[in-house]
Every structure is written in structure tokens, then in C-alpha cells.
Amino acid sequence: MKKLLGFILFFALNVCAQAQTFKMPCDVSGTVPAMEDKKLPPEHIVVEIQSLGKNLFLKIPNSKLYSAQVSSLETEEFSGKNLTNPKQMGAHRKNKLTAKESEIRIERDSRILFGYNDTVVDGQAARIYFQGPCTPPIN
After folding, report:
1. Which CATH entry fits the domain spanning 21-133: 3.90.550, 3.30.70, 2.40.128, 2.30.29?
2. Of 43, 75, 100, 102, which shows the fewest CB atoms inside 10 Å?
3. Is 18 helix (H, G, I), strand (E, B) or coil?
């Protein structure tokens, strides 16, 4: 009986702690200012948005050029900041060891995504800036 009660409690806590993921499709293009404003090709991406407690998580997975992951969560490895205000939703993340940064912001009215990510382009460390329109989230 104790094992069954423990399992039920464990299961209930895990279900309650999971956040719903909203997926917002966007069409973005980018530039690399450090490389004479090198233009990057446009790409259709999906931003995954989660909110858990007071923390905001935004992720662009499965993109060749514009992959990024940000959150407002503070950890030993990353500092995070919630950039959400009445005009926009977003977050900023910085690696405390490498100083690499990422930021994703989405304007509420226009649904325009703005972001940047420190990464490697053509074998060089560089910051990619990207932006583009999004459509309402799907879940």
C-alpha cells in the first residue's frame, strides 16, 4: 500500500510540474555583422514557448542557422533574464563560463520575432542576428 501511495504521489507531482508547450511558426532571416553584414538565407522555424512558475523558456530547435535556447532561469552555468513587458515577450541567457549569449523576443502586437545567438559561422565565432514575422501559436 505504501508503494502504491508513493507511486501515485510521484506521478501526480510530475504531471503537475510539466508545462504546456506552445509552438509559434515564424519565417526568419539573419545577418552576421562581424562578417561584413553577411546575409543568411531565410528559414521557416518554430519557436517553442513554455512558462513554468515565474520562469519563461523559449527554444528554436531543429534549425540549421537559427537554433537558440533561452530562459529566465538562473543556474550555476547560465544567467537568465525575463524580458517580458506589456509590448513583448522574451528572455535572455548568458553562459557564465564562455560568455556566449542568446536572446529571443516576440513583439505582442505585430508578432515579429527578434533574436540573436552567439555561435560559429564559417569556422569563426560570431553573433547571428535574426528576425521575422510569426503566426499565432499552436499547441
Report:
1. 2.40.128
2. 75
3. coil
Burial profile 98-132: b = 16 or more Cβ within 10 angstroms, e = fewer: eeebbbbbbbeeeebbbbbbbbebeeeebbbbbbb
DSSP symbol at 34: G
Strands (E), 34-100: 38-52, 55-60, 68-71, 78-82, 88-95
> So what's the pLDDT on residue 18?
63
Q: Is the pTM of this model over 0.90?
A: no
Q: Is 3 left (phi over 0), alpha (psi -120 to 50) or beta?
A: alpha
